[in-house]
Amino acid sequence: MSLLLRNVRVLDVETGEYAEGDLRCADGRVAETGTGLRAPDGTRVIDGAGAYVVPGLIDAHVHVTALTADLGALPAMSPSYVTAHAARIMGETLARGFTTVRDNSGADFGLADAQAEGLIRGPRLLFCGKALSQTGGHADFRGRGEHLTDDHPCCAGVGRIADGVAAVRAAARDELRKGASHVKVMASGGVASPTDRIDSTQYSMEELRAIVEEAEAANRYVAAHAYTARAVNRALEAGVRSIEHGNLIDDRSVELFLEREAFLVPTLVTYWALKEEGRAFGLSATSWHKVDAVLEAGLTALERAARGGVKLVYGTDLLGGMQRHQNHEFRLRREVQSPLDVLRAATTGAAELVGMAGEIGTLAVGAHADLLVLGADPLEDVGVLAEPARHLRHVVQAGDVVA
To answer: Catalytic pick from 22, 103, 184, 370?
Structure first.
């Protein structure tokens, strides 16, 4: 299948400049850009009439199996039921302009393979399997009166419990065995878990280092859920590559991000959505009251990180019906960052994090032909990307118009 876009403005995200002309896709890749391009017979031709073409978006923190904000309820659900919801969620995500996502616990090789084979309509899916959590950690959803756990691999859920260096090594190796693109570890308390504090640290340094060692041995990396500066800094010192959330970072955190060449994936929109709608979509009262501790701090942390030169990546972390707000993150980030910097976080920055620089998040010749055709300029106002129903004309994935 070949596709030719005529009379469009093609964005180079690295330079922030548009080139007016044409763009041709062939065999799922960007084949050429320029003016007056010719198309082979059978090529679909679209006259963009001056439209803006940007790379397909990348959301580096999603949970495509999270059909509810009550994450503890997922393991009791039928895997086939969860899969049906995940297929719906992935299709809606693609329609919003996200052609690649990094699932940060819950999705598995089955969903990734189904998408790659065309059985599920959705973004390219990079997954970590189940996140590693200590007993009483952010992926331990037992109430105080519960004792038994069931980590049977058939069950849906976002985490697995592993305590001690030997156990975390085995758990990391097991997720990598199943094809994980990275290992996710819960390095602090969180909102959705019932028995931990937001300001707690989780896992010992020895356990964190062991997990990092196993990921690096497989040429993969570790992403860590962490909120407070203490938790973030411990994770960075242990060799974690990607910090998720990081709402309460300090100046030392910024220094460590730069020293370790690590990435920060803020997820501002999820706290806004949880506060507004979390209770309606299954969030417990206990968890809802924990949102305030991180809600106001998010923009402050983003500003601190941006000012310090930290590598920032786009993420949303939305759950249940709140996933429809995925593009609202663009509006929130423009309070602190320039439109180009926000767009880079959702394209080249995210591509670098996941080890696919030059392959996705770019319109360079040879890259995957994932792109968006927009009716307005996102560099004038990145809020254009927050309104796909109004501004998004076409979503192109692997050279095919899919929305």
So the answer is: 184
Cβ contact 378:52 at 8 Å = yes
DSSP string, 174-210: HHHHTT-SSEEEE-B--SS-SS--TT-B-S-HHHHHH
Respond yes or no: is residue 130 known to be catalytic: no
pTM above 0.85, yes or no: yes
Domain extents in the chain? 2-56+362-401, 57-326
* Choice among 108, 140, 317, 370 that is catalytic: 317
CA-to-CA dists, residue 127 to 36, 149, 168, 235, angstroms: 40, 23, 18, 20
The CATH superfamily label for domain 57-326 reads Metal-dependent hydrolases (3.20.20.140)
255 is written with which tokens? 């220094």
Exposure of 15 by Cβ count < 10 A (0-12 exposed, 13-18 middle, 19+ buried)?
exposed
Using the structure block, give the residue that is written with the tokens 């076409």. 394
Contacts of 47 (CB under 8 A, 6+ apart): 6, 7
Catalytic residue status for 292: no
pLDDT attached to residue 402: 97
Place of tokens 């926000």: 342
| Strands of the sheet with 57-62, listed across from one edge | 57-62, 98-103, 124-127
Residues whose CB falls within 8 Å of the CB of residue 150, separated by 6 or more in sequence, listed in order: 75
SS3 197: coil
Amino acid identity at 233:
N
Residue 7 token pair? 């009379």
Report residues of the chain scoring pLDDT below 50: none
Which architecture does CATH list for 2-56+362-401?
Roll (2.30)
pLDDT tens figures, 150-175: 666 667 889 999 999 999 999 999 99
In the structure encoding, which two tokens stand for residue 46, read together? 């679209």
pLDDT given at position 139: 85
